[in-house]
Specification:
- The chain is an alpha/beta fold.
- It folds into three domains: 3-152, Alpha-D-Glucose-1,6-Bisphosphate, Chain A, domain 3; 157-367, Alpha-D-Glucose-1,6-Bisphosphate, subunit A, domain 3 (Alpha-D-Glucose-1,6-Bisphosphate, Chain A, domain 3); 373-454, 2-Layer Sandwich (TATA-Binding Protein), CATH 3.30.310.
- It has helices at residues 25-39, 54-67, 80-90, 122-133, 154-164, 169-175, 191-199, 227-235, 263-275, 291-298, 310-320, 344-358, 362-367, 386-396, 437-454, and strands at residues 8-11, 14-18, 43-48, 71-77, 94-98, 107-113, 148-150, 178-182, 203-207, 240-244, 251-254, 282-285, 303-306, 324-327, 332-334, 373-380, 401-403, 408-412, 415-421, 427-434.
- The strands form four sheets. Strands 1-2-6-5-3-4-7 form a seven-stranded mixed β-sheet, sandwiched between helices. A five-stranded antiparallel β-sheet has the order 16-20-19-18-17, covered by helices on one side.
- Helix 1 crosses helix 4 and helix 9 (263-275) crosses helix 12.
- It is globular and about 70 Å long.
- It binds magnesium ion.
- The site of magnesium ion (MG) has 6 residues, from loops.
Length: 455
């Protein structure tokens, strides 16, 4: 099976692919028409991130929605969480964000949201996909065709005001924090500097905040891709550094020494901030650090774990009425009191609020977190051999507590191993965590060794 066959994906949260080769305007138009037929004749909000194919696909999507008899509100370049808040606040029937998130610039995608500005649940997704595959679309006649309205200024204010309600903004402003920002020239390029400067009174040093320019680095914000931010932090003597992904839902954080924190630690700090304010439990995916369990326990709260994927975490959060949730490894903080979605703006506000309320540096806050050693990686396996490999792992750790909800999670006294097969490549993703560094190394090796012994 060639890798190219997987370059178009129609699934969990929408439709994604390499533009031109696989994701074409006609496909986007048809999918949008299916979406419009599904949500009904009413208002649908359409926005995008900054990649070059955005305007082209926005036209295609708008065309499909109008053909289905919808009214379109064009919110222009806008972070995904901001679009989600706007959909829920305005009574629109749904929203479409044109963004391939952290994927490379040649990709784009349609992220689909219901009238609450949330991902469709699995039943709704199946229904929508059926409708698309059967080309069972509404075809508006002349008298039913709606218009397109551009609303560019309302959504950011609406979103940011909700965020500000959950922190002590006056206290943050009083600190006048020196903050570095890497906006990856993405959808947050204009909104994020305004938020940090005007709402939170930061002395801001920003790079890559030109939405007309291409992404200057790998789009996923993680320690390996944030050298420029680390340098900016040290050069400007900033107290903290923030980096977003192209659609502004993910957040990475650097401390005052330019050290980029593990995303699990960022989530842990946000969980600490949220549980100190609000009652409720915590929902995270199976790969997220046990630090979250320690923090929740300190506040007398439980942690519920789900399969990997934002939609899975969000669905569980809704079911249990969680106070906060997220996916450590993916840099996602989900705080439902603002909106049930990954939101880098809430993350930034929470971390500045923690610094302001404790008077501690970012490195000190990170140092005080429960200490675990994590190791992430992936190994290739031969197609058809995955079952064997997983069985060998189960045998190797026979007697340990096994969770088969998403791949295999093995809980051991010294830590845990979580392995999942990629759904696009013959690749086994490995995540390991332990209280001691040597244990983390040993657990990681036990998986890679098993794979190499087989060859
Ligand atoms: Mg994203």
């Amino acid at each position: 099976m060639s890798k190219r066959e997987h370059l178009l994906k129609i699934g969990v949260s929408g439709i994604r692919g390499v533009v031109g080769e696989f994701l074409t305007p006609s496909l986007a138009c048809a999918f949008a028409q299916a979406f419009g037929s599904y949500v009904g004749r009413g208002t649908v909000v359409v926005g995008r991130d900054t990649r070059a194919s955005g305007p082209m696909l926005q036209h295609a999507v708008t065309c499909g929605l109008l053909a289905a008899g919808c009214e379109v509100i064009d919110v222009g370049v806008l972070p995904t969480p901001t679009l989600q808040v706007y959909v829920s606040a305005t009574g629109a029937l749904g929203g479409i964000s044109l963004t391939a998130s952290h994927n490379p610039p040649e990709y784009n995608a349609l992220k689909l949201f219901n009238g609450q500005g949330q991902f469709f649940n699995q039943y709704e997704r199946e229904e929508l996909l059926d409708l698309y595959h059967q080309s069972d679309f509404q075809q508006a006649i002349n008298s039913q065709i709606g218009g397109v309205r551009q609303v560019l200024d309302q959504a950011p204010r609406l979103h940011l005001d909700r965020v500000l309600r959950h922190v002590d903004a006056a206290r943050i402003r009083g600190c006048g924090f020196r903050v570095a920002l890497d906006g990856v020239n993405g959808a947050g390029s204009v909104m994020t500097p305004r938020f940090l400067r005007e709402d939170l009174g930061c002395a801001l040093h920003a790079i890559s905040v030109d939405p007309t320019q291409p992404f200057p680095r790998e789009a996923e914000p993680k320690p390996e891709t944030l050298g420029a931010l680390a340098q900016l932090v040290t050069e400007t003597k900033s107290q903290v550094g923030f980096a977003q992904d192209p659609d502004g839902d993910r957040l990475a954080v650097a401390d005052e020494n330019g050290h980029v924190l593990d995303n699990d630690d960022v989530l842990a700090l946000a969980v600490e901030a949220a549980l100190a304010r609000l009652p409720g439990d915590v929902v995270v995916n199976l790969t997220t650090s046990s630090a979250i369990d320690d923090i929740a326990a300190k506040h007398g709260r439980k942690v519920i774990r789900t399969k990997v994927g934002e939609a899975n975490v969000v669905e569980a959060m809704q079911q249990v009425g969680a106070a906060i949730g997220g996916e450590g490894s993916n840099g996602g903080i989900i705080f439902p009191a603002v909106h049930l979605c990954r939101d880098s703006f809430t993350g930034m506000a929470f971390l500045l609020d923690l610094m302001a309320s404790t008077g501690k540096t970012m490195s000190a806050l990170a140092r005080e977190l429960p200490r675990y050693y994590r190791r992430f990686g992936a190994v290739m396996f031969e197609h058809g051999k995955l079952g064997d490999l997983m069985l060998q792992l189960e045998e190797r750790f026979a007697g340990a507590e096994m969770d088969r909800m998403d791949g295999l999670k093995i809980r051991l006294p010294e830590g845990w191993i979580h392995v999942r097969a990629s759904n696009t490549e013959p690749l086994l993703r490995i995540a390991v965590e332990a209280s001691a560094e040597s244990d983390a190394e040993a657990l990681y090796r036990s998986v890679t060794l098993l794979n190499s012994n087989r060859e």
